Amino acid sequence: MSERSPTDELRAEHDVALAKMDSLADAVARLQRSEADRSTDVGEGVGARAAELQQALVLHFRKEEEGLFPDVLSVVSRGAPRVDILSHFFGGEADDDLKAHALLRGRLTDVQGLLDEAAQAEQLDRAAAARLDTLVGLTKDLLGRHAKKEHELVFPMIERLLDESQMAAVRERMRKISEAQ
Questions:
Q1: Are 88 and 174 within 8 A, CB to CB?
Q2: pLDDT tens for residues 77-93?
Q3: Considering only CA atoms, which of 177, 145, 165, 179 is closest in space to residue 5?
Q4: Local structure of 4: helix, strand or coil
Q5: Which structural domains are found in the chain, ordered by start?
Q6: Distance (Å, rounded) from C-alpha 11 to C-alpha 132?
Q7: Which pLDDT tens digit goes with each residue over 1-50?
């Protein structure tokens, strides 16, 4: 039985992150609709979900940025024989992915900032709950679009560009990144 490819591992991580994002969005929506005291929900429900999502994405982004993209960019820059027209814009797609990673990191930091403010105040007022709901909705949309693009465009290109030995090297780097986390 062969090991799962690095791109399949990253696809599975997208699925986990999207499920965590859905859970966070649902918890925030319930929190916004609630008329009851929001302090317990912020600390125990929403805060925990946000932290789990952030932790999953930090590891995932490292695997892509440090484990996968360097080999792909190396192959593209060398103009290997199997590199076709699709590879010529991979560098731009990788830059777009890195920008999306930075934007997602920033949005999750903003979510955590709102949650920290609420924890200090020991409540989340209606206006803050609405801001949190909007920010989480925007983050969910960005994460969904990002994952879809990688699944449909970026990962298939990578699968065409890297041979089995290169994929094995990527898999090993990703394993080390996971273990170091």
A1: no
A2: 665 555 554 555 555 66
A3: 165
A4: coil
A5: 6-180 (1.20.120.520)
A6: 27
A7: 468 899 999 999 999 999 999 999 988 888 777 755 555 555 567 888 99
C-beta separation of 27 from 41 below 8 A: yes
As a whole number of Å, the CA-based R_g of the chain is 19
Task: Supply φ then ψ for residue 37, to 5 degrees.
Answer: -60, 130
d(CA 63, CA 56): 11
Output the CA torsion sign for 140, 141, 142, 146: positive
Token digits for 26?
């649902």
Range from 60-69, 71-80, 84-93, 155-164 carrying the lowest mean pLDDT: 84-93
- In the chain, DSSP finds a helix count (H) and a strand count (E) of 8, 0
From the list 74, 65, 68, 125, the residue with the least C-alpha distance to 100 is 65
What tokens does 97 get? 């992915």
Residue pair 160/107 in contact by the 8 Å Cβ criterion? no
CA atoms of 68 and 171, how far apart (whole Å): 8
Half-sphere exposure of 3 (CA within 13 A, CB side): 13
